[in-house]
Amino acid sequence: MGKKWSKAGKSDDLKTILDRIPWASRGRETPISRLARSVVPVGNKVSVPKGDMSLHVTLQDDAHEDLVMDIQGTAFQAGRGKLYTCWHVIEQLRLQEGEAYILANTRLGGIEAQRPYPFAAVMKYYDMRFDDGGPGIDAGILVCPATDHADAPYEVPPVVWGDSTKLGVGDRVLIGGFPLGKAMFFSNETNRGLIQPSFFEGIISAIIPAIRTGETRLLQISSVALGGISGGVVCDPRTGAVLGMVTIGLTSGDVSLPITYAIPSEVLQPYADAISFDTADGTRWR
């Protein structure tokens, strides 16, 4: 005769099972989840409060949703105080009004939080081979000497660069960023407001050489690039090494096509590495 279960017994067993579910887990750590920490949204927000620790808002706080900016694109940490994005994204930022920010991960008293960080300066990509700096290269640096506190650290590490000169047609890559902008994170009634990059798979479908003076080589990738992912990373799916930056995706009418273009890392890394600047306390960041 089989074992009889009481209603109470079933409830107790189910509760034990439910208690073992990792409700707050983001999944196992991978090279791509580590890279995701270096990828942040960039956009505009009116009336962000001034101050320091007061800007940190935990994800559970009802005010967190009000903190999220109108996301214009994606940026990634290329070096200390230096974030890459597309120049066409920077042109959409309300820099003069003091309303342009990245939204970076941090912790406040050990609890996951986010904070907006403004920019001290912006620099358009400049190709020193040409008198006009290569205006056809859609890239720029956001200078952001982020304040770091022991109780609320700036948790956006620099990326690890990969060698894009070794890419060939057919190689697998991932692209990552913030497609659809703010709408991506507030379309559901539940699970709202956790701002994190999304990644999509593709292959190098073509490599387009520079044809005219002032142009860059381009990677063509068989992946859809929705609005908001401009400035996102192209990376090696095995290691998370950054191989390029997403600039634009093709559309036909209102339909996004699986054709995305990116600037290779061989073009991006030397410029970012060459930039240094002095902070308010006289420290030089390289």
Short key terms for the protein model shown above:
single chain, mainly beta, Thrombin, subunit H, 16 strands, 13% helix
In terms of topology, how is this protein built?
Blueprint: H1 7-19, H2 31-36, E1 39-44, E2 57-58, H3 64-67, E3 70-79, E4 82-85, H4 87-90, E5 100-108, E6 111-117, E7 121-124, E8 140-143, E9 172-177, E10 198-208, E11 218-221, E12 233-235, E13 242-252, E14 255-264, H5 265-274, E15 277-278, E16 284-285
Antiparallel strand pairs: 1-3, 1-5, 2-6, 3-4, 4-8, 5-6, 7-8, 9-10, 9-12, 10-11, 11-14, 12-13, 13-14, 15-16
Structure commentary:
The protein is mainly beta and 286 residues long. 13% of the residues lie in helices and 33% in strands. It is built from five helices and 16 strands. It has helices at residues 7-19, 31-36, 64-67, 87-90, 265-274; strands spanning 39-44, 57-58, 70-79, 82-85, 100-108, 111-117, 121-124, 140-143, 172-177, 198-208, 218-221, 233-235, 242-252, 255-264, 277-278, 284-285. The strands form three sheets. It has an eight-stranded antiparallel sheet. Strands 9-10-11-14-13-12 form a six-stranded antiparallel beta barrel. A hairpin with a 5-residue loop joins β15 (277-278) and β16. The N and C termini lie far apart (75 Å).
